[in-house]
Amino acid sequence: MIPISQSHIDRIVKDLTPPDEQARTQARAHLDTLTKPLGSLGRLEDIAAQLIAIHGAAPSLPLRKAVYTFAADHGIADEGVSAYPRAVTRQMVLNFLHGGAAINVLARLHGVALHVVDAGVDADFGGIPNLIHRKVRNGSRNMLHEPAMSDEELAKAIAVGAELAQQASAAGMQLIAIGEMGIGNTTSASAITCALTGASAAKATGRGTGVDHAAHAHKIHIVERVVTKHCPENTPPLAILQRVGGLEIAAMTGMVLAAATHRITIVCDGFISTAAAALAAAIAPEVKGYLIAGHRSEEPGHALLLSYLDLMPVLTLNMRLGEGTGAVLAMPVIESALALYSRMATFASANISEASQ
Ligand SMILES: O=C(O)c1ccc[n+]([C@@H]2O[C@H](COP(=O)([O-])O)[C@@H](O)[C@H]2O)c1
Ligand SMILES: Cc1cc2nc[nH]c2cc1C
Fold first, then answer.
1. Smallest-distance ligand from the CA of 269
2. What are the positions of the active site (predicted)?
């Protein structure tokens, strides 16, 4: 029998195609006509060409931008893997709703619509306004003892992100960032990294919110046990997600799959959101062409995932916050790339001599 989650995925990615390579080639040719030494805008040229390959033509500015911050709790937090208590997930959701978190500041500053999603926080928010209420369960299960999610919970969590991507598409969004909040979720991201890349737990496990030396050693041991238990070599990506993922991670994976299908550019944030995107790319490789890495997090596993995805981060600011902050910070750079593409003079129009060799 096909798992419910697989049939959901099949439906989501039914019309997924990679970005348009002909449009990318044409964009590269146009970049070479602009008044600058060939290739001198570096990665900005790659970014402009990628967006044009996605949209088929240069979109007008400003782009319509949104960030989705998915929150959920993790059963594995019971094992002492975080520097903070799990109550912080709920408390930070309230902070997001009151506008006081880092992501609120950055989203406001850069004209990015912020959507806060409860995918599985272990708290009752009642009918509190401005929260997207999509709780699948009060936290994922403790993956040291059982899979983090049942097949049905996984399918529901994936559907949360997919539905929001569909709404973003209907609202004309062109650039979306995925971010998260969930005490314990770097343990999941580390386990996912081990399962996808074959890296050891020692290489893929960092200090998350800032655990001390002893707790870090303990966390590495937990990741090792979890991966040994659930993810033998060649475990399919959907099974990895179900067994060692989390509700917010599954929602982000669903969002990436559906957003790519709707030809929306997705900016990944740090370690956890990139783990979700890496799973989406493992499930449907065409997704890769729609991804931009907003930044490179301090978490050591993030670098492993970025090379797994063959992505170069836009920014390196030694951040390790999450919430979508690094992704939103990259958005003005992405828009700058498009502004240069569309607004610079050409050698011909400005009457400037081209390279002589
Ligand atoms: O974005 C990152 O790379 C990142 C790195 C370390 C920690 N975080 C955030 O910290 C929380 C998880 O850390 P931990 O130690 O509880 O596993 C979660 O809310 C993440 O958003 C985020
Ligand atoms: C305070 C706090 C804010 C966060 N934002 C994302 N993860 C977080 C973890 C903590 C502990």
1. 1
2. 323
